[in-house]
Amino acid sequence: MLPFLFTGSRSLAELPTLGDPTLDSISAREEEQLGLAYYRSLRASLPVIEDIQLNYYLESLAQKLVTQSDEAGREFTFFIIQSPVINAFALPAGYIGVHSGLFLDADNEAQLASVLAHEISHVTQRHIARMIDESGNSIAINIATLVAAILVGTQDSEMGQAVLTGGLAAAQQSSINFTRANEYEADRIGIGLLIEAGINPDGMVEFFEHLLDKSSGLQIEYIRTHPLDINRVTEAKNRIKDEHSTLPKNSEDFLFAKARLAVLTNNNNGLRKLIELNEHLEGVIAEYLRGIALIKLDHPQKAIAILEPLSQQHKHPWIKLALADAHYANNDRKKTLELLEQLNSLYPGYLPVTLAYAKALNTYRQPDKSIELLLRQLQSDQYAEIYRLLAQAYHLNGQTSAALEATGNQYAMQGYYELAMQQYGIALNHEDLSKTSKTRLETKKKELMEIVKQRNY
């Protein structure tokens, strides 16, 4: 049974758990292989937003929920797809995608978190794995159809629905009912995660009601892929006690992230309209939005005029990061490094600052400092982008074998094991390689060879 997530709510804990993760299904290895394959397919076909600040925010929020789940040690991958469609989805093995349209449509952090909690629950309860197990090989084809619908639906909701409907026309009614039952369970578990993470669960009900209101006369992709009606909203509402409604709904980080996402997903015409809309609005978020929009429009001096005084009035690190970006765009090396060094002292180990500083150090040919900074970050964080910048710094410093190893580590983290082994192999051919480095590289290569062997078995 699922651990008791609802303090003082015995009736909720006694509800049946349809997606009990302890039940036998496809193996974890098979699920991981399937999830990685579909994740690679999506990344190769869709505009995935690579912005470290946004991704770090999303992952930090999601990890608050994951740590409250019954699979707190499981590895999840969260990513944002640039698409105006309002949707989110979970793939096998914990790959969870959020469309920028859904992120921007959320009014507060609790609403966004409710979607993440719902998708996390699909994964922890192994709903997809159970569907594969119950339906046989045909469900893999159905998941492939779902991926195709996601790809097409990012730009054309109606076309995406046509792909989805056509591909799944042969699905049995029992499978459809099972999916609806999973939606209710993901809501129930998700509400528990929100409460335990200290996030107001009313966000789930608010977002459901918002989507139902908005769907009148419109095609909302989230409702198509996540069956939603008034009964589901009512049931979610009944699970929330009065004391839970006092939990916080919003955060300053969410407001900064939403403003940043709005800028990154707009073209120049859209940015000018955004600036006009925010021109007479007061407050730190409106000014931050105008500042980063001006940077993207290649007006760094105008951006500096906004962000400089704002950074003195407000201490959120994203403001000074934006100010450093503006000085970089203005070709002011001294000010850029000065600001990033200052931020690194104020927020040691904060990944967005570390990576921004390392990138600038590499650009300005200071690889020694960059290497020291990134190696220190690796003591607490493991991200592919850290290894990418580390490889760049090693290359600038003339340390070729170390650069190859770092690139191999980057590929390994991204699931490109063959490419990683190739990098390790080239590094092993360097004559000046120390005995310790040679042993380490050989061990890494053997470990990846075993993973590939098991995957192809």
Description:
The protein has 24 helices and three strands. With 457 residues, the chain is mostly helical. It has a three-stranded mixed sheet with strand order 1-3-2. Helix content is 67%, strand content 3%. Among the domains are: 10-246, no CATH class; 268-344. A hairpin with a 3-residue loop joins strand 2 and strand 3 (95-99). Helix 7 packs antiparallel against helix 8 (157-167) and helix 10 runs antiparallel to helix 12 (230-238). The radius of gyration is 24 Å and the shape is globular. The chain has helices spanning 10-13, 28-45, 52-66, 100-105, 109-124, 127-135, 138-153, 157-167, 173-196, 202-214, 221-225, 230-238, 252-264, 268-278, 284-296, 300-313, 317-329, 333-346, 351-363, 367-377, 384-396, 400-413, 417-428, 435-455, and strands spanning 77-81, 88-91, 95-99.
Distance between the termini: 33 Å
Mean pLDDT: 84
Q: What kind of oligomer do you see?
A: single chain
Strand content: under 5%
Query: How are strands sequenced across the largest beta sheet?
Result: 1-3-2
Number of helices: 24
Question: Could you give a short description of this structure?
Answer:
The chain has 457 residues and is mainly alpha-helical. Among the domains are: 10-246, no CATH class; 268-344. 67% of the residues lie in helices and 3% in strands.
Distinctive features:
globular; mainly alpha; three-stranded mixed sheet; 457 residues; disordered N terminus; 3 strands
Question: What topology does this entry show?
Answer:
Elements: H1 10-13, H2 28-45, H3 52-66, E1 77-81, E2 88-91, E3 95-99, H4 100-105, H5 109-124, H6 127-135, H7 138-153, H8 157-167, H9 173-196, H10 202-214, H11 221-225, H12 230-238, H13 252-264, H14 268-278, H15 284-296, H16 300-313, H17 317-329, H18 333-346, H19 351-363, H20 367-377, H21 384-396, H22 400-413, H23 417-428, H24 435-455
Parallel strand pairs: 1-3
Antiparallel strand pairs: 2-3
Helix pairs in contact: 2-7, 3-5, 5-9, 5-10, 7-8, 10-12, 13-15, 14-15, 15-16, 15-17, 16-17, 17-18, 18-19, 19-20, 19-21, 20-21, 21-22, 22-23, 23-24
